[in-house]
Design brief:
The protein has about 475 residues and is of the alpha/beta class. It contains eleven helices and 20 strands. The longest helix has 23 residues, at about 440-460. It holds the Pfam family FAD_binding_2.
């Protein structure tokens, strides 16, 4: 651009795009600085599948209704109350108006996936997944005149008192600077910086896999925190799920998630169970398993199921390990065979009447006299062939971030920064103190992206 834009948006995922589109529609000249090359644009958003949405009746692909209080209760259960209620309720209430807005900006929806997800009432699924959503928004942004620079790595956001005066970035070996009226940070967490993860978690973090983009390294986040911008969240808290241990180090995405845990027993490298696999339906519990596995020796777990459970969950991207006996399965998985046999025998003995088994809802089919118990879907593992998966901790995004107010505005101490806003994963720690609720990251990004875009445009237009 020959002149500085009105607004610079740092990041290229859902939150950044919602902000850029909203600002452009308000008449602002917008530049997006996306660290990834074009083929990998979109941050973690390209790996997403759905958006959790409040609604008072059927809405788009969503059936029945999902009210504010039920939504908030679901959030409280997974966060253990560690949330900013005002911002959480703002995100929840605003989600209902987001769905038609998304449709009007090119996003298409499909009926929800069936099986262990059980989300037809609460989560709207994107037709073509997150990559399709990201591409739709980029098309919309282009029509609105938004300029996108790829491979644009922001190195410094310069603060002068209570305002941003300059954004420095590089493309290849070339350095650039822009001095916009407004800046929106939507560049995610720091999870792709393994050294930072290890500083927060300890050496165990080097065994973690990163489900999403390798470009979310927290460079802008660290730069702003170093300058005294108010932070929120715990660096050891993150959206971490148990994923297939054969997944790649980066960018494995949603397909590496395993949905078999409720119908299994999960053991550590010593073939010992360590948690209740049937505690709740999977969308409300899948996000705790990353931390559970992280606490085990070598940060690894192993799922054991039998033939009767194989078709009860979403198929895995890598086929399970298969064996005719438990001892053979143990050998293939590097587990002590006698100990696995004993663990399964103990579990089977604790199972009772299974006639009430129901795979898609809490069925109360539980063990008795077993520690830890299995409180639902507890059926003996007896039917050959037997199947196994290895589990590793897969980090989606970290919760340490920039603290914002209802207008998505950042501050230094008690003083708002007049022209700096944040949206998406980089501020999600304001609402997600711990735990995760399926589809809620997209809700936060969409709601606060739109708020940030509106506020940044109003500021730019006034100056």
């Amino acid at each position: 651009m020959a002149t500085d834009p009105d607004i610079v948006v740092i990041g290229g995922g859902n939150a950044a795009l919602c902000a850029a589109i909203t600002a452009a529609e308000a008449g602002a000249k917008v530049v997006i600085l996306e660290a990834a090359p074009k083929a990998y644009r979109g941050g973690n958003s390209r790996h997403t599948r759905n958006f959790r949405c409040m609604h008072s009746g059927p809405l788009g692909p969503l059936v029945e209704s999902y009210g504010e209080d039920e939504y908030f209760d679901d959030l409280m259960k997974v966060t253990g109350g560690k949330t900013d209620e005002d911002l959480a309720r703002l995100a929840i209430r605003s989600s209902e108006e987001c769905l038609p807005w998304m449709e009007s900006h090119g996003v298409r929806f499909q009926p929800s996936l069936s099986g262990t997800l059980s989300l037809a009432r609460t989560n709207a699924f994107f037709l073509g997944g997150g990559k399709s959503l990201v591409n739709a928004y980029y098309r919309t942004a282009k029509k609105l005149g938004v300029v996108v620079h790829y491979d644009a790595k922001v190195t410094h956001v310069a603060l002068d008192g209570d305002r941003v005066c300059r954004v420095d970035y590089s493309t290849g070996d070339t350095q650039h600077s822009l001095s916009p009226q407004s800046v929106i940070v939507a560049s995610g967490g720091f999870q792709a910086d393994t050294d930072w993860l290890a500083r927060a978690w300890g050496p165990a973090a080097r065994n973690f896999l990163i489900r999403g983009t390798p470009y979310n390294r927290g460079v802008v986040l660290a730069d702003l925190l170093d300058q005294g911008v108010q932070q929120v969240g715990d660096p050891t808290q993150c959206h971490a799920v148990a994923i297939d241990g054969r997944a790649p180090k980066f960018d494995g995405g949603i397909v590496t998630r395993l949905d078999c845990v409720p119908f299994s027993i999960v053991v550590n490298r010593d073939a010992e169970r360590f948690y209740d696999e049937g505690e709740d339906v999977w969308p409300k519990r899948y996000a705790i398993w990353g931390r559970l596995v992280a606490a085990q020796p070598d940060q690894v777990g192993h799922v054991i199921i039998d033939a009767k459970s194989l078709n009860l969950f979403m198929p895995s991207v890598f086929p399970p390990i298969k064996a005719d006996t438990l001892e053979e399965l143990a050998e293939k998985m590097g587990l002590p065979p006698a100990r696995l046999r004993a663990t399964v025998k103990e579990f089977n003995r604790a199972c009772g009447d299974t006639s009430g088994f129901h795979p898609t809802e809490l069925d109360g089919v539980a063990t008795s006299g077993l520690t830890p118990p299995k409180t639902n879907w507890a059926r003996p593992i007896t039917q050959a062939p037997f199947y196994g998966y290895s589990l590793r901790t897969g980090v989606t995004f970290t919760y340490l971030g920039l603290k914002v107010d209802r207008n998505a505005q950042c501050s230094i101490g008690d003083r708002p920064i007049s022209n700096l806003w944040a949206a998406g994963e980089t501020m999600a720690g304001s609402i997600l103190g711990q735990g995760y609720l399926a589809g809620f990251g997209m809700t936060i990004g969409t709601v606060f992206g739109r708020i940030a875009g509106k506020e940044a445009a109003a500021h730019a237009n006034a100056h």
